Amino acid sequence: MSFSANDVALSAAESVATTADTLTVELSDGRAISVPLAWYPRLLHASQSERDAWRLVGKGEGVHWPGLDEDVSVEGLLAGRPSGESPASLKRWLEARTARRPRRSARGKKKARV
Asked: Of 90, 88, 95, 97, whose CA–CA distance to 50 is shortest?
């Protein structure tokens, strides 16, 4: 007997948790998948509050972080696929992210960029 990956119904994501180094997705079938946060550089460079701002998409087929423009699919997690973002794309994203952040003065007050 043979079957393809397309014949296997994927479980839906139900919840997401992150630590400083791990992404964990709880699935509807009771499994939890944990992968290194380094697989998803945008999540790795994000603050914990940014990582906590996720939403399920496609009835749980994936997870989206609107503030980070990051998407992770359950299929990709199950297949063990890290982010496919190119180094050039990540570099542009990091540069744009840095440019958007206000600088702080020595006293901790925000300083306007000129």
From this structure: 97
Q: In this structure, are residues 82 and 39 in contact, taking their beta carbons and an 8 Å threshold? A: yes
Asked if residue 41 is part of any domain, the answer here is yes
Residues of the domain holding 105? 7-111
Over residues 57-67, the mean pLDDT reads 96
Output the domain CATH number for residue 24.
3.30.2020.40
Q: Alpha-carbon distance 13 to 28, whole Å?
A: 6
Task: Report whether pLDDT(112) > 80.
Answer: no
pTM for the full predicted model: 0.79
pLDDT of residue 9: 67
pLDDT for the residue 10? 77
Q: Which residues contact 54 (CB under 8 A, 6 or more apart)?
A: 16, 63, 64, 65
Q: Taking a C-beta distance cutoff of 8 angstroms, is the pair 50, 18 a contact? A: no
